[in-house]
Each structure stands twice: as structure tokens, then as C-alpha cells.
Specification:
The chain has helices spanning about 10-30, 55-75, 85-110, 120-145, 175-195, 200-220, 300-315, and strands spanning about 40-45, 50-55, 150, 165-170, 220-225, 230-235, 240-245, 250-255, 265-270, 275, 280-290, 295. The protein is of the alpha+beta class. The strands form three sheets. Strands 3-8-11-12-10-9 form a six-stranded mixed beta sheet, covered by helices on one side. A four-stranded antiparallel beta sheet has the order 4-5-6-7. A two-stranded antiparallel ribbon has the order 1-2. The longest helix has 28 residues, at about 85-110. The relative contact order is 0.12.
């Protein structure tokens, strides 16, 4: 995967937004922090009146840690070959760092007055900061990304009466770990919040548990190519995740997958189509009649495409 050379302006667009965010948090902490009391208003009603109190430094250290990660990631993104994936990571981290940093700054500045009321316009500042720290770096990284190589494959040479099938198993240990953690946190949230509100406990815990189970179902899948078409099935639940009949497929091939090109990792739905992405690397691509595609990242993508091509050729000759 080739990348285009980034000019000075583009490199600054990637790094400067997170650096400015870090400087702003550091300046407010150094100048306003010493004047803050041990307990400040940390949560506010819709009209801006405080309804929660706590230490100002707990949220500061959380915001500072995420901002530092954003700066490190921005600098690292300049060296990554897969800049589409780098853009996706920068988007997620910067979109999290901006509200954390601005909210802490707002809390700190608001609590320096005698009446710690949060003005409504701070919400506009938060939204503006999110746009300012995400749009420039993501735009610069995507524009500097080279094309993703795509390849056609010669179909397998088989006899007219041969039965063609191909199968591969794909998985991600990260998906499995994330799913387990989500389920455990959901159970823990149910137990903790049940002390205050049964309804909230059931809703919070159930959503986290369901999300964890869904991620675990994607942690190990089986990709099959045969006369029925292309199928992707969870090996744990045996529930089909993707099913593409052979008569819907116009052509096939494989490409060097960039997760950022499909919008990230996992089960992705984008303008290009539907994809199962667990990493960068080879991916089997089925191009559909009428546009769109289905893609599965798998190490043996070239052989899978050759098998699918043989089935398509047999269909065309029948």
C-alpha cells in the first residue's frame, strides 16, 4: 500500500489540533487549578444549575490522559503507512479528547465564580472543539492515503462436473476479550445500580451484556464459498452474519484491506457495502450486481476468490 508525501501544512493539520488541546488543558490547570476548592460543581441540570459535586482533579487526570494519547497518536499517524486506518483512530480518540478537555476547562472556569452555573453556550464550544480537532487531521490523512490495491484472480481450473467449495476460519482475540469485558461490566453495572434503581439497572446491564455477546459472536467466524454463494457464520452461535447468493455476485477478487476504508473494525456497513474487518491485509471481495460489495478479511483471500470465480464461471456457462 503506497502513500503520498505529506506537505508541512498537512502534517501540521494532523498534529496541531491535539497539541493545542493539550496546551489549553495544561494552562487552565496551571493558572486556575490552584484556586479551585477541594469540592466543585461537576454535574449540571439542563438549565445550568449544579446537581453534582466532587473533586476537580479526577476528571482532570482522565481528560489529560486521553489528550496525551491523542497527541501521541497524531504524531504516530504521520509514520503509519495505512493512513486511512490512522485517520479512523485519530477521529475516535480526538472526538473523545475534545469534550473531556473542554468540559473540564468549563468546570474549572465556572467554579472560579461565586455562582457555579454552567452557561448553555459551553455546549456549542464543546461541539466546535470536536469539529476543530477531528476534521483537519482526518481530512489531511485521508487525502494523503494512496489507493488500496485490488486484484482480480484467475478462476480455478476445474472440470464441468466438479464440485467447488472453499472454507476458512477467521477470528480476533481482541474481539473476544472486548466481548468478555463488556459482559462482565454489564453484570457488574446491574449489580451496582440495582441499589438505586431497578429499571436503570436492567437497562444499563442488559445493553452492555447484549453488546458483549454480539462482539463475542464476531470474534470467531467461518467463511464459506460454494454453489450457494458466499456465507459468513459465527462459529460460536452458528448464526449467519453474511449471506450472498451466487446469482447476486457479478465478479470477485481480493484487495489489500485498509480498515479505515471500510470505516474501522468489526461488522461494517458503508458506502462501499458490507464488510467483516478484523485487521489490515488480504480480503476476499464479492462485487454485486447493481453495485456495492461484500468483503471478508482472510489470509487465504486469493484462493477464496479463485474458488468463487470458478463457481461464477460455471454459472455463466450453464
Amino acid at each position: 500500500m503506497t502513500t503520498r508525501t505529506m506537505g508541512t501544512g498537512a502534517r501540521l493539520a494532523v498534529v496541531v489540533p491535539s497539541v493545542v488541546l493539550a496546551i489549553a488543558v495544561g494552562l487552565v490547570a496551571a493558572t486556575v487549578g490552584p484556586t479551585l476548592p477541594a469540592r466543585v460543581a461537576t454535574h449540571f441540570d439542563a438549565d445550568g444549575t449544579p446537581n453534582g459535586w466532587g473533586s476537580p482533579w479526577t476528571t482532570f487526570w482522565i481528560a489529560a490522559a486521553v489528550v496525551v494519547v491523542a497527541v501521541v497518536l497524531a504524531v504516530s499517524a504521520l509514520r503509519l503507512r495505512d493512513r486511512r486506518t490512522a485517520a479512523t483512530l485519530v477521529l475516535v480518540v480526538n472526538a473523545l479528547a475534545a469534550p473531556l478537555a473542554v468540559v473540564w476547562i468549563a468546570v474549572a472556569l465556572t467554579n472560579t465564580t461565586g455562582d457555579p452555573t454552567m452557561p448553555w453556550w459551553w455546549l456549542a464550544v464543546v461541539l466546535g472543539a470536536m469539529l476543530a480537532v477531528t476534521v483537519p487531521p482526518v481530512t489531511a490523512l485521508v487525502r494523503s492515503a494512496g489507493p488500496v490495491p485490488a486484484y482480480d484472480v484467475e478462476p480455478l481450473a476445474v472440470g464441468p462436473d466438479a464440485r467447488v467449495a472453499w472454507r476458512a476460519r477467521i477470528g480476533s482475540g481482541w474481539f473476544a476479550a472486548l466481548g468478555v469485558v463488556s459482559v462482565l461490566v454489564g453484570v457488574w453495572a446491574t449489580w451496582v445500580t440495582a441499589q438505586a434503581s431497578t429499571g436503570t439497572a436492567v437497562l444499563t446491564g442488559a445493553l452492555l451484556v447484549l453488546a458483549g455477546l454480539a462482539v463475542m459472536a464476531l470474534a470467531r467466524v467461518e467463511c464459506t464459498v460454494d454453489r450457494r454463494g458466499l456465507r459468513l457464520t459465527s462459529t460460536w452461535t452458528r448464526i449467519p452474519i453474511m449471506r450472498v447468493p451466487l446469482d447476486r455476485i457479478e465478479s470477485c477478487g481480493w484487495e489489500q484491506v485498509s480498515p479505515g476504508q471500510w470505516g474501522g473494525w468489526g461488522y461494517r456497513i458503508s458506502g462501499r457495502g458490507v464488510a467483516y474487518v478484523v485487521r489490515s491485509g488480504p480480503g476476499l471481495v464479492a462485487r454485486l450486481r447493481g453495485g456495492g460489495a461484500r468483503m471478508v478479511t482472510v489470509a487465504d483471500a486469493e484462493r477464496g476468490a479463485a474458488a468463487l470465480g470458478a463457481l461464477l464461471a460455471a454459472r455463466g456457462s450453464s
